[in-house]
């Protein structure tokens, strides 16, 4: 992930409805959402995503990528015919409001919950999604790279 990208993951709402929590998705290596997608083939979802961004070049056989890893993209990992993860990275150097709107609509249409990966919290709607992006480290970097890098440097020295 590039420092200018705001990163979210999408998780089936049914998983949260049965007691799942955002905290249980994070581990030492990052995020693990395969458990949330258990038994979902996602073929209709994949067809829908095809119309959002053009197909990009994938670096892994289990990954379908739309868009560009350097800009905004959508990434779907699949294994044994089932979805394991669905993530979106928004390029905040040149925010695409239509992409924000489309992802919010996609989440509602497919009964998915948007999760802010960095802050480990759920996002309710389009306004919340845009607000989370605006408050993200990616936005801080885009608006004031020197201040962001100084802050990161101070944090790195403190640990």
Short description:
The protein is of the alpha+beta class. Helices cover 35% and strands 26% of the residues. The protein has one domain (5-158): TATA-Binding Protein, CATH 3.30.310.
Question: Would you mind describing this structure in some detail?
Answer:
The protein has 159 residues and is of the alpha+beta class. It has a single domain, classed as TATA-Binding Protein. Helices cover 35% and strands 26% of the residues. The chain has helices at residues 13-17, 43-50, 97-109, 126-134, 137-143, 145-158, and strands spanning 5-12, 26-27, 30-31, 63-67, 73-79, 82-91, 112-116, 121-123. It has a 6-stranded antiparallel beta sheet with strand order 4-5-6-1-7-8. A hairpin with a 2-residue loop joins strand 5 (73-79) and strand 6 (82-91). Helix 5 (137-143) crosses helix 6. It starts with a strand and ends with a helix.
């Amino acid at each position: 992930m590039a420092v200018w990208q705001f990163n979210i993951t999408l998780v089936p709402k049914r998983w949260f409805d049965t007691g799942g929590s955002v905290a249980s998705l994070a581990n030492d290596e990052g995020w693990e959402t395969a458990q949330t997608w258990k038994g979902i083939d996602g073929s209709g979802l994949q067809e829908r995503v095809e119309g959002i961004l053009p197909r990009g070049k994938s670096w892994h056989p289990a990954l379908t990528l739309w868009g560009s890893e350097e800009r905004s993209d959508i990434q779907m990992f699949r294994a044994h015919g089932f979805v394991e993860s669905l993530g979106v990275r928004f390029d905040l150097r040149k925010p695409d409001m239509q992409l924000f709107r489309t992802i919010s609509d996609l989440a509602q249409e497919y009964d998915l919950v948007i999760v802010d990966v960095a802050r480990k919290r759920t996002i309710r709607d389009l306004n919340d999604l845009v607000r989370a992006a605006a408050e993200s480290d990616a936005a801080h970097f885009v608006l004031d790279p020197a201040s962001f890098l100084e802050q990161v440097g101070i944090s790195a020295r403190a640990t």
